[in-house]
């Protein structure tokens, strides 16, 4: 646990007693604060009481007594409308923070020579893979690494800081909205596409929340590693980062060259090109790319989007002094994350890939683009726009097998692309396998739903496990997962 200083002997309100809320309360108590907890759910309140915390109805509390409000990232700060605790805190002049901000203050309170390094990753898609990949590469290089935040362990539940350690932290837009002093040494923005717009009041607010990862450059200067897939977003976050003193490293997935990326060069080089199968560096406009890494043997890094994730990890490792050859060796040994382009088994000439985490069309695009041919399992509870924006990739789909509520709308969007409504996962897996095996070729059955899971499954993990079970029930040989 990371004890949070700065609130010794003072009452701190904590609302929302999920993973981050209870962890924050423990960290505050360890630092000498007097946390006062509340949650709308009685079971959460009972758990807090069982741990010995003060549980008090914050609707009737005297807010002038609180030094801060620690808000769960799942609770609205601004949109669709501020939560009632936010209104009360603002009326009482009480600052509002989240667990990542408390982590930042705990690190900043350490003597300069004792502070660990911090790598922070955010983005709409790819942030979990990039976080896990970065942590893996740094661990393989022999560093003491702690990974958490929006992935795995809550950030304040990670081990206490020691000199030389590195924290690799995934941060969501909700968490960033609750930061004011967070200053990672390396800040990575993978991409920004429309998501959570209801919580940020639209795309402008969502981009602004993501850009907060660059709000505070560390005193010795930090590295901002930014994907250029959306140039408008890239420029919106880059110039403020440069003004803050960050050294900016652009990462592009440009198909053929760096052409068309002229604005990128205005922040200086080099530009990292992430192409399916390899990474290279371009020092200046028009220069020949220099190869940095050959990823063709990395089973867990298939596709251009994973090459981009690898580029982020490689740059982060370099910023922390890891030799490039050693970092590349770490990339090649990465076992991958479950439910994210995860090869789960093989039967005959058919490979089964679990990309259940692709809960929107943008994420599914990355998977579909990674294979020249696929037998695609898609569907669930559709998000705005469905799969309409994927029509340029439909020629790669040999046949689609549709499940869940979105089966009908997805079928309409597919038009002349071969498809059938399978209904449930087991049926879809069986039908997809038999169709793929009938070709006699090396084929891929790809689960990349492009939809939420909540019509048939409690979460994307459960959906991915249902896919895995159906694959193994066919008699497929499972791939090991790290």
What does this 3D model show about the protein?
The protein is an alpha/beta fold and 482 residues long. Helices cover 32% and strands 21% of the residues. It contains 16 helices and 21 strands. The protein has helices at 19-30, 42-50, 84-91, 99-108, 127-140, 173-176, 197-200, 203-211, 231-244, 262-265, 304-319, 324-332, 361-368, 407-414, 425-437, 460-473, and strands at 11-15, 34-38, 54-55, 66-71, 95-97, 117-122, 145-149, 166-170, 186-189, 223-227, 247-252, 271-275, 278-282, 290-294, 342-347, 350-354, 374-379, 397-403, 419-423, 443-447, 477-478. The chain has a 9-stranded mixed sheet with strand order 7-8-6-9-10-11-12-13-14. It has a 7-stranded mixed sheet with strand order 19-18-17-20-16-15-21, with helices on both faces. The chain has a 5-stranded parallel sheet with strand order 3-2-1-4-5, with helices on both faces. β15 and β16 (350-354) form a beta hairpin. α8 runs parallel beside α9. The protein is globular. The two termini are 26 Å apart.
